[in-house]
Structures are given as C-alpha cells and as structure tokens.
Amino acid sequence: MSKVRVLVGTHKGAFVLESDGKREKWDVSGPYFAGWEIYHVKGSPADPNRLYASQTSGWFGQVIQRSNDGGKTWEAPGGDIKPGPEAMKAGASNKFMYDTSPETGKPLTTHQFYDGTQHPWEFKRVWHLEPSLTDPDTVYAGIEDAALFRSTDGGLTWHEFAGLRGHDSGPRWQPGAGGMCLHSVILDPSNPNRIFIAISAAGAFRTDDGGKTWKPINKGLHSGFIPEPTAEVGHCIHHIAIHPSRPGVLFMQKHWDVMRSDDAGDSWHEVSGNLPTDFGFVIDVHAHEPETIYVVPIKSDGEHYPPEGKLRVYRSRTGGNEWEALTNGLPQSNCYVNVLRDAMAVDSLESCGVYFGTTGGQVYASADAGDHWTPIVHDLPAVLSVEVQTLP
Amino acid sequence: MIRVALPAHLRTLAHVSGEVELEVEGQATQRSVLDALEARYPVLRGTIRDHVTQERRPFLRFFACEEDLSLEPPDAPLPDSVSSGKEAFLIIGAIAGG
Q1: Fold of the CATH domain A3-391
Q2: Whole-complex ipTM
Q3: How does residue B98 score in pLDDT terms, banded at 50, 70 and 90?
Q4: Rounded Cα–Cα distance for residues B78 and B71 (Å)
Q5: Would you call A79 and B43 a contact, using CB atoms and an 8 Å cutoff?
Q6: Identity of the residue in B38, B41, B47 whose CB atom sits nearest the CB atom of A61
C-alpha cells in the first residue's frame, strides 16, 4: 500500500509525519535540528529517500542538511573531514557566494533598499530547496538576498545562476517585509531548460536556456502599493504553482490578487473572483485535476490572519474565479493563525491529499481533496513549510 | 592545548559534548584558534565567522578570563592562561530573540 511522508519545517525544528495511504493514523518524528529555523525540507523526486533541509539561525547562519534515509538520519554535506580532494570542499555546503566574476558578476552589486537607496547584496538564508526532477544530487536553492543557486554534488558546493541577479532590472529589486527572498522555484517537467522563479518584491522570472538568461514575466500584474503599479519588476509575489501535466499554466498568489497565466507567464489575468479577500500566501494545484486550485485567504497585509477568525481553504474547480469555502474540520471561530507561502502541498494518491501548516503549529490534512480536514498535529512551533512525498 | 567552549547549538551541530580541546600551532590568537576549530569540525565553518569576510557573526561574542575579547584584532595574542589551557576560550551566543 502506498505511504505518505509529510515534511514540516518550523520555527524551532523539522518534523516528519508518516502515514499509510488511508492517511488516518500518523507517526510523528522530530524535532530534527531542534531550536533552529527550518525554512524548508523537500525530497528528491528521483530518490525519495534523499531529502534536503535548510537549517538557519540568526546567531549561527545557514546550514544545509541532507538525509539518505527519508529523514531518519541527517548529515551536513562537507561537515566531516574526508581525505583527498573532498577535504578541500569540507564545510562548503553553507557557502553561498554571489558570483562576482568579471564575465557574469560585474554588475551584480546593489539592489534597492527599504529607504530607496542602493544596497549591496548580502546572503541571509536559504528559503527554498528544489531538488532536481531527475538527479538526486542536483538541487536548487532560492536564497535571501534574492538569487538562485544550484548544487550538483548533493549540496556540498553551490554556484549561482548569475544571469538572474544580473538582469538589467536587478538594481530595482527591493525587499518585501520578510526580506528580499527568492521563494518559489519551479522546474518545468517538460523542458529541462525552463525554470520559473519568484522573488518578493521583484516579481516572477523565467529562463528558457537553462539559467543563463532570465526574463521578467510580470505583465498583467497590478500592484497598487508601488509607484508604477504595472511596472516590469517590483511586485510582491507570494507563491507560484503549476500542475506538472500542464507546465505552461501558472497560478500565483500575489500580495493581493490571485492570478493565472496560460502562456508560461508571458501574461497574467486575475482570477480572485468571489474570494472573501484575495490576500494570502499559499496556492497549490490538485494532483490529478489541473483546473482545481487551492488558496487560504488571509484578511490583509496588516492583519495576517483569516477573515472573521474562520480558517477556510478555498477551492476552485474552474481554474479560478469561482471559489468554494472548505471548512469541514477547520476552526470556524477565534482562529487567528497565518499560513505561510511554502506551507501547503498535495500528495498524488488516487484521492488527492491536501496539507497545510499554520503559524499556530497545526498541520491539517485532507484525504479527499479538501472536503474534510483533520489536524495531524496540533502544537508544533510555527510552521514555515510543508512538503509531501507519496511513496510506493 | 587550547580549550574552547561552544554554545549548545554548535556543540550539537559538531556532535561534541563539553569543551573542545585543540592543538594550535604557534601563537594562539582568535584567528588561529578558530582556524584549528574549523579544521577539526568543518561543519562549523560559516557558523561563527562569515565565510567571506571572516568576521565574527554579529550575535556571537568571544570571552576569556572574564574579559570580552570580541573587539580585539583577530591576530592579537590570546591571554597566556588561554594559551596554556588554564582558561577556556568562550564562544557565546547573544541572549536575544525568541
């Protein structure tokens, strides 16, 4: 029987939640890396036992962790001394060095800061780890200050795709309230040269040449809080999702507005429809129905909790515009949690499972595509990210 | 022999308990002690000093002999009692945050 493994990153450690295909009884293990902020944990599609975790701390900086046994044990690549050439790479797994080479990095000097002045790029942390679809040792990292890195040796060493930060618009990128983070990385399953990324608050970008050059894909976005609401860059995108069978169709939760693109990001149109508020962070797509999408509306950018104190997932079966509230099993009074941008995921069992985590430490699961919800855990630290693996 | 006391999270990361004992070639300074520490425990690279600048991370400080050595030059000699192993070189995390 199939199994499901839910990987949860929290403000104070990582947790692994496992169940059989019924998704009724759960084994909870953790905390791993207790006391550290775990921004993201994700498994390799090519080898589900290979997991990567971003472990960060305001005191001690960044650590990358790797598991080869589905999260039972972990190692920091390069953390142990090994003889030979590998010794040179020891301790390099947390070394995210911006490319400043004359060929590619020369213009990569400053971005716009909160006060409008230019500010040097400074590495803060890894927000998102996206393992390759085909190679367990290849993994992409979206970092703050915004840049995209890749490792092809299992997280031991990292190299920047300097063409992204080197785009002409780079000096106009600016941090959102949470920092200038590259938080969404989508690898196109039908085209290995195409990657989508999103940055808060710069916008979405796409490469069609394997990461050498990048193009802003923000046409159609309207952000009323920036000086030029339809600018090429400057939009505070919160998350992007696709269905693997239809990678040219993108869904976006922007700061405000839920958006859709049918041309790989070349143009966007709003599909917020009848949502009670179109502010929010997460967005995801049903595993088997490319037109079924999920969001969790949040009241506003000033009030980061559900409207009316009711935690509601909204589902659209029409690819947006027409939304229904899903409330069965979710608190419908006095609920003031948030659901952060990487904290929703779906499994690919026959009856699609949907999962999300809250800043109140709950991880909710639905084994029937959102019709009924049950908390798997109630009292974890604030949840930063949720990923799901469907295992044979 | 130099004794180094790490904060709890770095002891966990390096899989050590208690103080770390290091042999340091030549003059014991902040730089030579941290170089020896990172050579023994590569996982600590970047967690105490910035990878690029080699500067102390802002929320960490260095103490020894009841004195704050954080602002001393990295190549300044450490006190004799640290070099001799009588006193530990303390790496302290700021009491801050939540």
Answers
A1: Methylamine Dehydrogenase; Chain H (2.130.10)
A2: 0.95
A3: low
A4: 12
A5: yes
A6: B47
